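In response to the reviewer comment on reproducibility (Comment 2.3), we provide here a single inverse folding case reported in full, input and output, so that an independent group could reproduce the run without further information from us. The structure tokens appear first.
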């Protein structure tokens, strides 16, 4: 579980606040937790790391934080967020979780998103950062403080925002976009062919398309691997035909049948858990394979044909997702309708 699940908006910080520490499962852990001082984040720039930026989070459920005031260089901002940097609400961070917090910039660099991650290392030597690895959640995704929480709406978020600005790791344009992002678990996409996680048992997959031009919600219904339990209606329940989670990506179709059309197809990049067919559907459903395009019924690829959607919402989605792409058969946004 990441910060996204437990951090609550509290408004801008005014004045000082008390530092509160929280109990770990055992009495010994509680004593250690009380004696612990809050983590003081001095930098998020991997090039500026020093020995004092090394932290051990092993088996802790959460930690209190302070963010150093870059303008003074000595004073620190008050402690932020009671439940911060959570990994698992009961067991805490895995044993051996020690290393450095850092800012992971967007890839490619001309996109607007980035996030704070934790690099696990073998020692407190900053030179070990390069050979370390990012802390992973149980589903294999990197643990992170998402950009949607690095905003003035949250006490910690405002502090991280000021630190990132002071270190010139982000610019104000990025932060303005981050402040418009929804506070949800849905993935943010900034480019085509960007992998994102999906749950095959879910009837709808939601993602947010983000660029300097705006933010737009894109909801795709999973009619391939879920089936209605009764006649479809406003309150219909759906049952899965395949169980498991995976990374998938949208990409431009290179199939001959789609030549000259703005068609996206869906590819399975990597299975995050075992993908298994529900027994009652074994005779009708095939588990998708890593590296291959995902198929719907009758061996048809899972596609999204933008040429079939001419409404303003879809046009806006195109311009946000691929603002500079020359879509086959599509007019530029400034062209007049004929």
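Designed residues, in position order:
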């Amino acid at each position: 579980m990441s910060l996204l699940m437990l951090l609550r908006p509290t408004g801008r910080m005014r004045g000082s606040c008390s530092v509160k520490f929280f109990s770990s499962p055992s009495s010994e852990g509680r004593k250690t937790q009380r004696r612990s001082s809050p983590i003081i984040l001095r930098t998020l720039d991997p090039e500026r790391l020093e020995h004092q930026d090394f932290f051990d989070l092993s088996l802790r459920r959460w930690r209190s934080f302070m963010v150093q005031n870059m303008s003074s260089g000595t004073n620190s901002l008050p402690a932020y967020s009671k439940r911060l940097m959570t990994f698992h609400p009961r067991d805490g961070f895995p044993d051996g979780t020690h290393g450095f917090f850092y800012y992971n910039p967007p890839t490619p660099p001309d996109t607007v998103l980035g996030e704070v991650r934790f690099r696990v290392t073998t020692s407190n030597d900053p030179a070990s950062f390069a050979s370390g690895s990012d802390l992973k959640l149980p589903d294999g995704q990197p643990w992170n403080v998402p950009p949607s929480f690095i905003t003035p709406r949250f006490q910690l978020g405002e502090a991280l925002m000021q630190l990132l600005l002071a270190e010139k790791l982000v610019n104000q344009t990025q932060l303005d976009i981050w402040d418009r992002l929804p506070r949800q678990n849905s993935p943010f996409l900034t480019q085509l062919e960007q992998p994102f996680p999906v749950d095959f048992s879910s009837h709808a997959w939601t993602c947010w398309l983000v660029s300097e031009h705006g933010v737009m919600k894109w909801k795709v219904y999973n009619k391939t691997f879920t089936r209605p339990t009764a006649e479809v209606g406003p309150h219909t329940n759906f049952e899965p035909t395949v169980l498991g989670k995976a990374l998938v990506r949208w990409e431009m179709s290179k199939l001959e049948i789609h030549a000259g059309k703005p068609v996206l197809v869906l590819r399975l990049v990597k299975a995050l858990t075992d993908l298994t067919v529900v027994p009652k559907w074994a005779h009708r459903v095939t588990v998708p394979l890593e590296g291959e395009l995902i198929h719907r019924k009758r061996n048809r690829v899972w596609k999204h044909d933008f040429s079939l959607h001419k409404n303003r919402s879809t046009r806006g989605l195109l311009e946000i997702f691929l603002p500079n792409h020359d879509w086959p058969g599509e007019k530029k946004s400034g062209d007049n309708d004929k």
